[in-house]
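Journal club prep, notes for RB
We'll compare a predicted complex against what the paper describes. Inputs for the magnesium ion case:
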Amino acid sequence: DIKGFVFDLDGVITDTSALHSKAWHKTADEVGVTWTTELDNGLKGISRMDSLNMILAAGNKENDYTQAEKEKLADEKNDYYIQLVDAMTAADILPGIQSFLDSLVENHYQISLASASKNAPRVLDKLGLSDYFKKIVNPADLTKGKPDPEIYTKGAELLKLPPEACIGIEDAEAGIDSINAAGETSVGLGDKAILKDADMVFATSRELTLGHIADNME
Ligand code: BG6
Ligand code: MG
């Protein structure tokens, strides 16, 4: 029986994935790496430093920067990202998400957050959703990022639930792999061709309802 829901944030609850992309695209331009859709998709769900390293590797430039220079590039990306986040309001919650969260509360499901983003509490605050997420995995405590199962395993542990009792919700391939490896049921939001390993995929957050999930459970 499902008792809890473990959420990704960026690209699931709000379209911050577009803001991360915008900020990383700027970094890629600065370091002279060609920005492609493939690179963009590969960065989704990946931690800040891993993302920067992926961008540099895409241009075979991973050895061109010292650790201190990499940290500066990552800090600059984050400063720009935060500017974009600070302009967000409740109007930026993706369609259907708040009513889905309300339906979970009403039906006594437990809720936690498994976002790789260190800015997650700030984003939730801007959206006015902090009250739903009392349990947040701290990405600073992780030894491995998505697609490793660690973050989703911790998301279930915060709820004191076994993985089989949890559903994880993701927009990224690395996130779906993490949920599956943790032994939870995976729900993908987005393109079925990219999220091919998810237990079920809905094209948009509008389709994310308890009824639709129940229809797709085995
Ligand atoms: C993930 C996003 O949720 O968090 C990535 O999908 C992002 O795009 C990562 O890079 C880390 O976020 P932050 O806010 O800690 O730089
Ligand atoms: Mg995401």
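Talking point for the session: The pocket of 6-O-phosphono-beta-D-glucopyranose (ligand 1) is lined by residues 9-10, 17, 20, 43-48, 51, 78, 115-119 (CB under 6 Å).
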